[in-house]
Each structure stands twice: as structure tokens, then as C-alpha cells.
Design goal:
290 residues, Rossmann fold, 44% helix, seven-stranded parallel sheet, globular, alpha/beta, 10 helices, 2 domains, 12% strand
Length: 290
């Protein structure tokens, strides 16, 4: 029960990874406020998770589009009214956005994806940080992914927004560190979700043959189990990860269960961060022109 007595807001919790994170949080003892754009899917999750709650534990839901500031304001206001604290914010809501060459995709869809993925992460953080500062404690977990660390042609809005999420995470972590608020991003792994189905439906002509082949293989194999990134989210929301902040952690590849033993090493370096690669990093000596 790593999260017993803690209170969390989880966005994009109506299905897929968000619903899995919500289930893990409830199983670990947290009370949660879940949001998504679909009321129907949220209600189903609420019913499922409310079947076996501990005394005082709550599962609340509220429809909200994280790209809409007024709806985010209302969501956080509900959390403040219903919970004694806001211990954790999990920014999970996201979309792939338009697929195809930049000059051919719908521009409004491109902007909308950045609004949901990036601003829909930044603004909820802005709303909860004052509460967490007053508490002198908090946990913020932002969902990033492969789009943050690798180029994704024909998915430029997704890649751009997810890279922005990581740099924002690193920046906010330093802003709030003195108030004992930890801010981290996670790469959940290659998940087989409804977003994967959207990529397959788009076809190789839209997303590129190589990428489409990779997604088709992922879908056939089942992808990374949702329980894996959900477990990382639970750990980052727990006291066990206190002091680990400003990092992009891979749920699949990084030894995150042991990172508590490496707090000092992490704090003093740039491991699990986004940095520019120089020739020297690759063993090359390129002289600066005179």
C-alpha cells in the first residue's frame, strides 16, 4: 500500500494506460479524481474501481478536456474541495495528432495536438503547484514517450509536444525543488492501445512504411503490458521516490526500483535527462574553425 492516504488527480483515465494507472493507485491505497473527455468510459472505470475500497478511500470522476483551461480549473477546484490534500498529479492525457507530412496535415489539428499534449500537461501543473507549495510536498508525473527522444517523421506534432513535456519537466523540477515537490516524466514503452490502432488505420502511406511495419509487429506481439508503466507511476507517486526529480525514466529499460539507492548520484549529474550530444561524446575531436 505505497500510496495509502494519498490523493491524486489522473488525467486521461477513461481507458488504456490512464485507467490502468488509476487501478494501480487505488490498489495501492490512494483516493483518486479521474478525468477524461468521455463521461461513459469514466463511469465504467469508477464502477470497477469502487468495488473494494478501504474505509475513507474514494474514486471520483469529472469530465474534462485538458486542452481547455476552464475545464482544468474546474477539475483542480473539485480536487481542492473534495480532498484534504493534492499529493499527486499524473498527466496522462494525450493524442497522436495528425499523421503525414507537415505541409499536408491539417494545421488546426497540429496545433490542437500540441495544446493537448504539452499545454494540457503544463496548465494542470500550474494549477496544482500552489497547493503543493503550501503543503511543502507533492509529486507530478508527466507521460512522455519515444517521441521525446527520437525523431518521428509524419508525427511531428506528437514528437514536438512530447519533447516539450520533458524539457518542461526538467525546468519545473528545479523551480519547485525547494518545496519538496518531485517532477518526473516517464516513457511508458511501446503500448498496444487505441492510439496504436489509429496508427495502423492510417496506413503506411500516411505514417511511413517502416514505422507502420513496426507498429503492426507491436500490435501482433501485444506490446508492453500496461501494468509496467503503471507500476512506475505508482512508485513515483510514493514516498519511496522522494528526492528523485527532473528525470525522464523508461518504465521498461531503466532500473527504477533501485533508484532510491542512487539519489545522490542522480542529483549530481545528467543521467536520465535530455542533453545535446557533442563530437567529444562520441570520441571525435572536431576542431573549432579559427
Amino acid at each position: 500500500m505505497k500510496l495509502q492516504g494519498r490523493h491524486a488527480i489522473i488525467t486521461g483515465a477513461g481507458q488504456g494506460l490512464g485507467a490502468e494507472i488509476a487501478a494501480r493507485y487505488v490498489a495501492e491505497g490512494a483516493s483518486v479524481l479521474l478525468c477524461a473527455r468521455s463521461a461513459g468510459s469514466l463511469h465504467e472505470v469508477q464502477v470497477r474501481l469502487s468495488a473494494d475500497l478501504a474505509p475513507g478511500q474514494r474514486v471520483l470522476i469529472q469530465t474534462a478536456d485538458v486542452g481547455d483551461r476552464a475545464q482544468v480549473d474546474a477539475l483542480v477546484a473539485t480536487a481542492r474541495a473534495e480532498f484534504p490534500r493534492i499529493d499527486i498529479l499524473v498527466n496522462n492525457a494525450g493524442v497522436y495528432g495528425p499523421m503525414g507530412p507537415l505541409e499536408e496535415v491539417d494545421w488546426d489539428e497540429w496545433v490542437s495536438a500540441v495544446t493537448i499534449n504539452l499545454l494540457g500537461t503544463v496548465y494542470p501543473c500550474r494549477c496544482v503547484v500552489p497547493t503543493m507549495r503550501r503543503q511543502g510536498y507533492g509529486k507530478i508525473i508527466n507521460l512522455s514517450g519515444g517521441g521525446a527522444t527520437s525523431p518521428m517523421p509524419r508525427l511531428s506534432s506528437y514528437a514536438t509536444s512530447k519533447a516539450g513535456v520533458v524539457r518542461f519537466t526538467e525546468s519545473l523540477a528545479l523551480d519547485v525543488q525547494a518545496d519538496h515537490i518531485d517532477v518526473n516524466a516517464i516513457a511508458p514503452g511501446a503500448l498496444a492501445t487505441r492510439l496504436t490502432d489509429q496508427l495502423l488505420a492510417a496506413g503506411p502511406g500516411t505514417v511511413g512504411q517502416a514505422f507502420h511495419d513496426r507498429i503492426r509487429t507491436l500490435s501482433a506481439d501485444g506490446g508492453t503490458p500496461l501494468a509496467v508503466p503503471a507500476a512506475l507511476c505508482a512508485w513515483l507517486g510514493s514516498a519511496g521516490s522522494d528526492g528523485i526529480t527532473g528525470r525522464l525514466l523508461s518504465a521498461v529499460w531503466d532500473p527504477w526500483p533501485t533508484l532510491a539507492e542512487r539519489r545522490e548520484e542522480l542529483a549530481g549529474g545528467d543521467i536520465y535527462t535530455l542533453r545535446r550530444i557533442t563530437p567529444e561524446d562520441r570520441g571525435k575531436r572536431w576542431e573549432t574553425p579559427k
